[in-house]
Write a structure and sequence with these properties.
With 118 residues, the chain is mainly alpha-helical. α1 crosses α4. The longest helix has 38 residues.
């Protein structure tokens, strides 16, 4: 029975991480192509730095997205900007979107580490 659960959870994890991994690979390919066109050469150290920068910014943005629908942030937004009040559904949605940003950004950082090893 443990094997069945492990199979389901690994399929769920793969299904969840497929889109962020694809996004990270597309971003890394675009970065490589942009550096190749812009600098006329593909500097590995520059590519690694760009991947780390984008990964770090994506991680920060994912945290901001996740925290944007917390009760306290929603209260501030409601008071200052007249936004809708806090709901548990909006918090769950923001956490889901933020976690995908963080996962894709983690893949970018991992790709940066892999590029630095090659």
């Amino acid at each position: 029975m443990g094997k069945i659960r492990a199979g389901k959870s690994s399929r769920r994890l793969f299904s969840y991480s497929k889109t962020p991994l694809s996004a990270a690979l597309v971003i890394a390919a675009c970065d490589s192509l942009g550096l190749l066109i812009g600098l006329r050469q593909l500097s590995r150290s520059t590519l690694v730095l760009v991947l780390f920068l984008e990964g770090g910014l994506g991680l920060l943005l994912g945290v901001v997205i996740s925290l944007s629908s917390s009760p306290s942030a929603s209260r501030v937004g409601q008071t200052l900007f007249g936004t809708s009040p806090w709901t548990r559904e909006s918090e769950k949605h923001a956490e889901k979107v933020g976690s995908r940003w963080m996962l894709a950004s983690s893949f970018l950082v991992l790709l940066g580490f892999l590029a630095s090893l090659v």
